[in-house]
Design brief:
The longest helix is centred in the C-terminal third of the chain and has 13 residues. The chain is extended. The protein is built from 1 helix and 2 strands, in the order E-E-H. It has a two-stranded antiparallel ribbon. It has a domain of 38 residues. Helix content is 16%, strand content 15%. It is α+β, with helices and mostly antiparallel strands. It starts with 41 loop residues before the first strand and ends with a helix.
Length: 80
């Protein structure tokens, strides 16, 4: 049986009447273009069976099984 999820001693559990609603999240209409930096330095990193592209600006590509696809993601990001 899993451990109970009771609040720590001295704390109360606060329940919100509208469970499931997300408050304070900005609307995202799609992928944002890369910021205008003088240079996007991209690399690929492997984690287990997956490879991901990363950029110095903070952008991260999706996890890919094919390294070549992760490199293509990085190239597309760097060129805009």
């Amino acid at each position: 049986m899993p451990p109970s999820r009771e609040p720590a001693a001295g704390r109360r559990r606060i329940l919100h009447p509208a469970l499931g609603n997300v408050v304070g999240v900005a609307q995202q209409d799609g992928p944002e273009p890369p910021p205008t930096l003088p240079e996007h330095r991209t690399t690929t990193m492997e984690k287990g069976r997956f490879c991901m592209a990363h950029c110095a600006c903070g952008w991260r590509g999706p996890a890919r099984r094919a390294r070549s696809q992760a490199r293509t993601d990085a190239e597309r990001h760097a060129t805009g």
